[in-house]
Amino acid sequence: MRVPLEWLSEYADAGLPVKALEERLTMTGTKVEAVHHHGVGALERFVVGRVLEAERHPDADRLTVCSVDVGDGGPQQIVCGAPNVAAGQTVAVARPGAVMPNGMELGVAKLRGVESNGMILAEDELGIGTDHAGIMVLGDEHAPGTPLKAVLPIFTAVFEFEITPNRPDCLGVYGVAREVHAATGAPLKPPPWAQDLRTGAEIPGVEIRVEDPELCPRFTARVFEDVTIGPSPPWLKARLMAAGQRPINNVVDITNYVMLLAGNPLHAFDLDRIEGGRLVVRRARPGEQITTLDDVVRTLDDQMLLIEDDAGPTSIAGVMGGQRSEVHDGTTRVLMEVANWNGPNIHRTSQLLNLRSEASGRFEKGLAPEQAMEAQIVATQLMIELTGARLVPGTIDVGGPGPPPKVIRLRERRVAELLGRAIERPRQAEILTALQFGVTDADDGLDVSVPAFRRNDVYREADLVEEVARIDGLEKLPATLPKRRGSAGRLTTVQRLRRRAVDALVGRGMYETVGWSFTDPGLADRLRLAPDDPRRDFVVLENPMSEDHSVLRTTLAGALLDAARHNTARGMPDLALFECGTVYRATTDKLPHEHRALGGILTGRLHPQTWGTPEPPRAGFFAAKGVLGAALDAIRVRWDVEPATEPFLHPGRTARVSAGGEDVGWLGELHPLVARTWDLDHGAALFEVDLDRVLGHADAVPQYVDLTSFPALRMDLSVTLPEDVPAATVVATVREAGGDLLADARVFDLYHGEQVGAGRKSLALALAFRAPDRTLTDEDVAPLRERIVGALHDALGGDLRA
């Protein structure tokens, strides 16, 4: 929310420098996100002038050469292009050296050969309006040379506040002024709604009916006749512009001005366009439609509120008005509606209709019913003052004020317990009174009545303690450590194993990333997943940040590929990235399934190019298998891989990963079509495992095994096998046949050629045998060797090579 300091100071002038006031408000909980400056610079160069003479430019039909009295130094010659400039006018003048709202510094210029010593200004050139059709004419009561800042609000600092959802009372200038008063001690002027012109209880010829008082706790209306639609005065336009609102006409500007001042939105109806003079607040019928002010047809459901007259819907309650009843240039009778709506219902309506407005943003945070009448009072004053309107006697008020104030006991002892320091009772009373709480003394503290505008935020003793603490100064509270009786800061077994796996990947030169947990449903198509693939079972978010983040991810692959594309597009194609994060999958149960996954991606070269390796190896299947194996070995998991297919991985270069006989993940090279989708011209290798399931097979508490007392007996074995037998199956068969004495078995060579025949291959295995109690001899190992050769022949069709 943007609050001009010039406007704020009308109600509470702290007399502090802008920076000091910003820091004080932020430290008391009303966070200033930024400070802007609205209007012109070099204020002394802007003055009131009077046009003495106005003659046509000798060489330009649309220019006028004016002689302008600016108060000193004699009349100044200024060339003006406005069609309405004339002798005798009192105008706003920018003299050379003035800084315009766009930052341009004005100098002496020549226009078609005629010197111009300044500029006669239009509204938009001062930032106090949008009109550029002609110059702004001031009242004759202002003497030439008068500083323009004394006549018009041509410059102000603007605070941009980050108002938290629990503080809708600060969504109005007067609410912020209340905070300034409490935080700085600046005098607070009475609220602009302190005096009301209210008369009567009914308005002849107008009827309001609320069918759902739960969703519309209060509805107020007043009628104004003899309304003259026209431009607003410059001071009102200037404040709206500084607050980020565009002036339109006096009636619409009044509704926006009052909303910004009092915090409660308003809506002005053209009474002559309300059929039957009757408004009904009701739930919409399923599929009912209305055309809103933005010229869009909206389809409603039966949970949304609308306002209708005898001809049908006129507006969506609390969100946006309709075209049929809006105020226009010919309006002479206005019905001013100020109502209070159910916050959660307004939030739901605006979200489902994708229709956000200043009104909905305020109502959804929970305004008090009392604020509706406050805004109505201020609007009444301005309608009479600025439009020449006549207030029709009577005020319709359906629902009335909210419940009586709640009284909460604030105990002095409890304040000291929660804050760690005592705050004297008189100081507590001073703070709460400044915040407009009702305060009376009690035996052990204060009895505090909560004002209506804080009803939804303050409802227990701890909330009052917070109010006292933030105004007195949170920086005054002592620094203490929380009580930790019987607790110890140590990692669980699962956490230790997870860190060990991550550290192994970091040790292999990989970098950890943190991707979005959100993605878009189109990811499944980009990964070429089948229609029945469970990774299409996305958890859909009810309130997504955007369409690209509307579902929860079912795999880490999307985030890893996005990170690779981002880096590759910026000249970093050689990557080794991994992520340890949660993935989600929708189920038939109330809650989705989620688990921790570990995934990685390798692209480009595996290490930098050097004189010794002019062509370093590139990332591929075995590089991904190597780093995954490092992580799994670090947590002592017995794992295997076997050929498999994944729609987004390269056929023939894909494997399933298993641990303890359970399928736990996949690895492989990226499919060329998928690589093209992510602009990875040189491909990539990826892996992903279900880390929660993997850790279930980890050797969390390893047992000591003597490895050094007796040497191993090593031998090599070369066998020929059918081409389609996986090396992992060969190693598994060897381990099973070798028994307890086989300490290690690994493949160190692969051969294809005429010597082994078509359709076969040769694998060379390195075997290591070791006994815990003696040094093994060839005679000890020979039976094991024969058993291994026999197992390979019987199970896999393998033959020992000569």
Mean pLDDT: 92
Strand arrangement, largest sheet? 27-31-32-36-35-34-33
How much beta, percentage-wise?
25-35%
End-to-end separation: 85 Å
Stretches with pLDDT under 50, minimum 5 residues = none
Share of helix among residues? 10-25%
Oligomeric nature of the chains? single chain
For the biggest sheet, the summary is: 7 strands, mixed
Number of helical elements: 19
What structural class is derived from the secondary structure elements?
alpha+beta
Rg over C-alpha atoms, rounded to the nearest angstrom: 39 Å
Shape: elongated
What is the count of β-strands? 40
3D architecture notes:
The chain has 19 helices and 40 strands. The model has no long low-confidence stretch (mean pLDDT 92). It is an alpha+beta fold and 802 residues long. The longest helix is centred in the middle third of the chain and has 19 residues. Helix 10 packs across helix 11, helix 12 packs antiparallel against helix 15 and helix 18 packs across helix 19. The chain starts with a strand and ends with a strand. The strands form 10 sheets. It has a 7-stranded mixed sheet with strand order 27-31-32-36-35-34-33, sandwiched between helices.
